[in-house]
């Protein structure tokens, strides 16, 4: 089995692959290193390799790697920044500063598409990246995602208080809100949808008329209907990770 990890600042996304197959037999999201070790042990499988991408600090990443290697007696392969990978050229002047999750998502999307692509990741933060038909990464944008927008409003506006159940119910419709939860949740979703529409319009300008749009990240379902023919690929980063860190 191959263990794949996408390590964010607060959550770790994991999945198990059987052999060299791209098909995951198990996976999920955990909130801590210890929780990861525990849930992988629960799968009762023999690991032969581990590969991961991390946006954590070097020290935090090293601590996680040490835990995994001690617990499962495997070597961890870690994705690194690069100027060029699998037909894609990094568009940052300082290529190491491009987030590894964004970089791998772009590489994964280009491998799936083999033509110009717009890649939008809707997670804690929202990112967009443009890649040309020739594989040139043209840059992108970063803005707060739904969790950050919601948190900022709750933190800096004293009367913006509601629970998770109210938030869930609020997203059953997008008509003007008649309660605080409805107004905030629907307003934030409309901002996400507006961002996606703007990115598609910009992609037509920078990439031409023939390009694919990829959506990934937990909030992708909230905007999927904005772009006809969009490709929703939840494991896009993992596709790029497999390219960056092949297992023999």
Automatic annotation (TrEMBL):
Sequence positions that bind K(+): 121
InterPro entries, A to Z: ATPase_NBD, Type_III_PanK
SUPFAM superfamilies: Actin-like ATPase domain
Residues where ATP binds: 6-13, 124
Enzyme Commission number(s): 2.7.1.33
Primary location recorded for the protein, binned into one broad class: cytoplasm
Cofactor comment text: A monovalent cation. Ammonium or potassium.
Source domain of life: Bacteria
Reactions catalysed: (R)-pantothenate + ATP = (R)-4'-phosphopantothenate + ADP + H(+)
Entry's Gene Ontology molecular function annotations: pantothenate kinase activity
General function of this protein: Catalyzes the phosphorylation of pantothenate (Pan), the first step in CoA biosynthesis.
Protein family according to the UniProt entry: Belongs to the type III pantothenate kinase family.
Descriptive protein name: Type III pantothenate kinase
Originating organism: Pseudomonas spirodelae
Upper taxonomic lineage: Bacteria, Pseudomonadati, Pseudomonadota, Gammaproteobacteria, Pseudomonadales
Gene assigned in the entry: coaX
């Amino acid at each position: 089995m191959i263990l794949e990890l996408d390590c964010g600042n607060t959550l770790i996304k994991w999945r198990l692959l059987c052999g060299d197959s791209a098909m995951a037999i198990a996976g999920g999201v955990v909130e801590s290193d210890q929780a990861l070790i525990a849930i992988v042990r629960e799968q009762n499988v023999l690991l032969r390799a581990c590969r991961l991408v991390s946006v954590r600090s070097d020290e935090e990443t090293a601590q996680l790697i040490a835990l995994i290697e001690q617990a499962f007696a495997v070597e961890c392969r870690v994705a690194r920044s690069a100027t060029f990978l699998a037909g894609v050229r990094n568009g940052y002047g300082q290529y190491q500063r491009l987030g590894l999750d964004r970089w791998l998502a772009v590489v994964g999307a280009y491998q799936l598409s083999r033509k110009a692509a717009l890649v939008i990741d809707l997670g804690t933060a929202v990112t967009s990246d443009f890649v040309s038909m020739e594989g040139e990464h043209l840059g992108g944008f970063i803005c707060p995602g739904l969790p950050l927008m919601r948190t900022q409003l709750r933190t800096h506006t004293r009367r913006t208080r509601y629970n998770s159940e109210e938030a869930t119910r609020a997203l059953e419709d997008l008509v003007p809100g008649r309660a605080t939860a409805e107004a905030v949740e629907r307003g934030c979703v409309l901002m996400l949808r507006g961002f996606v529409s703007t990115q598609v319009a910009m992609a037509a300008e920078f990439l031409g008329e023939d390009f694919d749009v990829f959506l990934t990240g937990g909030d992708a379902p909230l905007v999927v209907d904005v772009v006809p023919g969009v490709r929703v690929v939840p494991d896009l980063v993992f596709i790029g990770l497999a390219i960056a860190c092949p297992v023999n």
